[in-house]
Amino acid sequence: MRTALTALGMIIGVAAVIVMVAIGTGASSSIQAQIRSAGSNIVMVTAGSGGFGPVRQGQGAVTTLTADDATAIKQEIPGIRYISPGLNTRTQIVASAGNWNTQVQGASAELAAIRSWPAQFGSFFTEDDVTAARKVAVLGSVVRDQLFGAGTDPTGEIIRIKNQPFQVIGVLTSKGQAAMGQDQDDTVIVPFTTVQKKLMGVQHVTNITVSAENGVALDTLSDQISALLRTRHRIQPGADDDFLVRTLEEMASVLTSTTNTMTYLLAGIAAVSLIVGGIGIMNIMLVSVTERTREIGLRLSVGARDVDVLMQFLVESIVLSLAGGAIGIGLGFGISYGVQRVMQWSAVVTPAAVMMSFGVAAAIGVFFGFYPARKAAQLNPIDALRYE
């Protein structure tokens, strides 16, 4: 019973490390998956700033970025999966039951795939709609709620954008707020050609959203896009770009670093229980040496060497630690599975966490068992035999 209670400290310690690391790793994987769905492999090309004399206009003021640039990027640069030219305006949206001021976002049919944004009702518009500049619209859930009521399916209804009728062909699923705080669902998405020709009367676009294939280096892709656009826009060497190229990779790396730090913190807290378990092993081994003093003296008197006694108690300590570690690993797997099923948390038990826990258990057995074993080996045989 005493040995079992001593091993319990090691069991709890190993199980705690595995569960904490599993929860941290699961959270990291979940966050990375959300980042990927939001577009960690996205490169954003936006129109640059311009000005006259000392007056400098803001980003997007230059009108040299066009849909033809997007076509050239997709055709001439490898590693592009999806691409969407776009431009935005803000106006009042009017429906039969109400009105709402929101952002009208012009995009291509590939924007839904870039943003991993499925439709709740209806569907996204097609390339034919973009080519024909049709007056079709896909609503964000906030706009739908404001114009037609929460949870309704307005597919087929007519809304008016700048006094022009648009047919609602779909409603997007809710995405909530973006990292910078804007509400992603408070938008109406229409073909960018429709915005150009029928809402704004322009030929340019203000942004191009590029989605790269998996494994493509975004830094290299950004450099290739910049080089191609400089050539197409006839920008002389040394002159400033009339566009900006940015990636979301920085946000992904910051969040991943944060989750890794959280994982290490959880593992460190759990490791304290391993140390407590090791102290318990040292305590029981010291008690064992005291209780078995006459046995140690008898072994030494009949020819056992100091190293034999040392190895006897050291092996006992290591076996106790490894047995507790093995049971703790099984318990850690069970608790991680239970957390995943009951609390709906993502918990991923990695081989590295298992090996680390088992290795630490063995190291604790050696470290905390060495002093009691060494004390036993240094006993004087005559004094040990006389011990009561």
What does this structure look like?
This protein has helices spanning 2-38, 67-76, 111-114, 127-132, 141-148, 192-200, 218-232, 249-291, 293-301, 306-342, 351-377, 381-386, and strands spanning 42-47, 51-52, 55-56, 80-94, 99-107, 119-122, 136-139, 158-161, 164-172, 187-191, 207-212, 243-247. With 388 residues, the chain is α+β, with helices and mostly antiparallel strands. The chain folds into two domains: 2-33 and 258-386, no CATH class; 41-247, no CATH class. The strands form two sheets. The protein has a six-stranded mixed barrel with strand order 4-5-10-7-9-8. It has a two-stranded antiparallel sheet with strand order 2-3. Helix 8 crosses helix 10 (306-342). The longest helix has 43 residues, at 249-291. The chain is elongated. Mean pLDDT is 83; it is low at 51-57.
Kindly name the structural category. alpha+beta
Number of strands: 12
How many individual helices? 12
Overall body shape: elongated
Count of distinct structural domains:
2
Largest sheet: 6 strands, mixed, barrel
Percent of residues in β-strands:
15-25%
Element-by-element helix/strand order: HEEEHEEHEHEHEEEHEHEHHHHH
Helix content: 40-55%
Distance between the termini: 24 Å
Mean pLDDT: 83
Radius of gyration: 33 Å
Low-confidence sequence ranges: 51-57
Q: Enumerate the strands of the largest sheet in spatial order, edge to edge or round the barrel.
A: 4-5-10-7-9-8
